[in-house]
């Protein structure tokens, strides 16, 4: 018989997951992804000709690049890296034999991925205006004009983050379900490609890989749809993932 379960088992699983991340490529990825977006947008402004650019357009360009392309691809790679921490050394048999509820292991992994996505969102929110100021200072004959609008950027990035929950849950489920990294990578790359093609279609706002980009819409009803589907779908998919994987041999 196992001893009685200690209290706060989920918090113990969370601490264990964060311990595994130390020195991992996952943390490096979470730093590099938002940096790439901010640097790319600063370079585009610096090299692109024409007149002045409003700060709002510049910052929304950062948010759009993040939502349409970099976030889905980063989530794909991040969930694979998190899953491979167990798949690679074949640790599932040991991990799932521990006297803790199996579902807590998967809830902890989902929570860690969402927290890492929150960290990437914060990094982008800070770097986008910072590198905008740098690019503005070193770009001759044109500049960034109008109010900074950092508060609006924060609100938009928060909507993107919240609506990405369903995408994160789907990709993590696939990454944990298959020991090979090929199926979740194919799913993520294919989903991102389809999202590009589906942009502007009627079904686009309901497609998980396009929902974060829909959170950028000027139409409040479209934003509401993205948030409801992203959050409610993410919660339901995370619960289904934990239920499924807790009953499935993963070793």
Please explain how this structure is put together.
With 251 residues, the protein is mostly helical. The protein contains 10 helices and 2 strands. The protein has a two-stranded parallel ribbon. Helix 3 runs parallel beside helix 6. The longest helix is centred in the middle third of the chain and has 37 residues, at 102-138. The chain is elongated and about 65 Å long.
What is the overall silhouette? Answer: elongated
Main sheet: strand order: 1-2
Number of helices: 10
Give the amount of beta strand, in percent: under 5%
Q: Which segments are poorly predicted (pLDDT under 50) over 5 or more consecutive residues?
A: 1-7
Topology (SSEs and partners):
Elements: H1 9-21, H2 25-47, E1 53-54, H3 55-87, H4 92-97, H5 102-138, E2 144-145, H6 150-163, H7 165-177, H8 182-198, H9 211-214, H10 220-246
Parallel strand pairs: 1-2
Name its key features.
2 strands; mainly alpha; 10 helices; elongated; disordered N terminus; two-stranded parallel ribbon; 251 residues
Short description:
With 251 residues, this protein is mainly alpha-helical. Helices cover 75% and strands 2% of the residues.
